[in-house]
Design a protein that fits this description.
It contains 4 helices and 9 strands, in the order αβββαββαββββα. By secondary structure, it is α+β, with helices and mostly antiparallel strands. Helix 1 runs antiparallel to helix 2. It is globular and about 40 Å long.
Length: about 230
């Protein structure tokens, strides 16, 4: 049985879109970049998120481009988001990205990443283990371009798992999502409440992109993919 609702989780994620959260305890990025799927978890654990209304989440526009930073990785306990869900490791991914242009990354707020995990665990992807992360993309003036959430599966994605997630997350979208291909990722795109979305797959990695403009969806994705460092 699925638990929670996609609208509640999406409300938190959308409500925080564009918020700039700086953590003074952030560690410096590693000297060499690595794909999020190879990052080893630390011994700390991330608690399951309590979804709050979008109106209670602080929003704002940064005044300067943040440096690319990463906090320590955390391991989400088995079952977070749905009883019996497969093990998923939550990482702070920004420090593992190497920008290739005039843009920067900052880790998405922890509560929005937890909400992303809840959406995954409410779909057929609850049975898949892997790595989860989220980043915000900023241009060289400090304006937010978009927010991306990742799920890098440990094993090949189950048949129809991505389609099931797309149907679940965009269940109430009007008009209905349309097929789209962006920067080599295949998926669907839609809009709701002034926010634009792309949810798709790229080499067994599921990527959810959110932006305030449809024109920013593909640049956000392209910036991420070219910054993975291999």
């Amino acid at each position: 049985m699925r638990r929670g609702t996609p609208l509640a989780c999406a409300a938190l994620i959308i409500g925080a879109l564009g918020a700039c959260s700086t953590n003074s305890s952030q560690s410096s990025p590693p000297a060499s970049a690595a794909s999020a799927s190879t990052t080893a978890p630390s011994t700390s654990t991330a608690a399951s998120a309590t979804v709050t209304p979008a109106s209670s989440v602080a929003t704002g526009t940064p005044t300067a481009a943040p440096t690319t930073t990463a906090r320590a990785s955390t391991t989400a306990p088995n079952g977070t988001g749905a009883t019996g869900a497969a093990h998923k490791v939550v990482i702070q991914a920004a420090g593992f990205l190497i920008p290739q242009g005039e843009y920067s990354f900052e880790d998405a707020p922890d509560d929005t990443v937890a909400s992303w995990q809840s959406l995954l665990d409410a779909s057929r992807l609850r049975a898949q283990s892997g790595t989860i992360g989220g980043v915000d993309v900023y241009d060289n003036t400090g304006q937010d371009v978009g927010r991306l959430f990742l799920f890098v599966a440990d094993e090949p994605l189950a048949a129809d798992a991505v389609a099931d997630l797309q149907t679940y997350v965009a269940a109430d979208a009007e008009p209905a999502p349309e097929p789209a291909t962006m920067s080599g990722a295949t998926g669907v795109t839609w809009s709701s409440g002034g926010t634009f979305f792309f949810l798709g797959e790229h080499t067994d990695t599921i990527i959810w992109v959110l932006a305030k403009s449809a024109d920013n969806l593909e640049p956000s994705l392209a910036h991420l993919l070219e910054s993975l460092g291999g």
